[in-house]
Design a protein that fits this description.
mainly alpha; Arc Repressor Mutant, subunit A; 3-stranded antiparallel sheet
Length: 121
């Protein structure tokens, strides 16, 4: 049984059939809602903080990895690299992409929008 902040066991707060809270159940219901909201708030803060931390130090180590990251084919990933749209480093045969750089390069790229490649006459 779940306990509220006030160490009172939170019983069936709301009657599931009528969805009515009696006056006696009000303090327990409010304590339960406060606990639930604080848990949701904590979950949202943690969810928003993790992606930024992971992106700061994450690297992609191959064209295959870049293709998986961008959810595209390896041929498309290779073209993006060869055209210079995505910055990379190469050590021997190993190609290294920084995720921040890849995301920055893809901000202006709209998949399937080929009309910007042609000039209007």
């Amino acid at each position: 049984m779940k306990k509220s902040k006030f160490n009172e066991p939170v019983k069936q707060v709301v009657n599931p059939e009528t969805r009515v809270i009696t006056f006696d159940q009000m303090p327990a219901a409010i304590a339960y809602l406060i606990d639930e909201v604080s848990c949701l708030k904590l979950m949202l803060e943690n969810r928003d903080a993790k992606p930024q931390q992971e992106l700061e130090s994450k690297y992609i180590y191959s064209i295959r990895g870049l293709a998986a990251f961008l959810n595209c084919s390896q041929v498309t990933a290779q073209k993006l690299k060869n055209e210079g749209r995505i910055k990379y480093r190469q050590i021997g045969r190993k190609v290294i992409f920084e995720t921040r750089e890849v995301l920055k390069a893809m901000e202006n790229h709209i998949p399937g929008n080929r009309s910007r490649n042609y000039q209007k006459s």
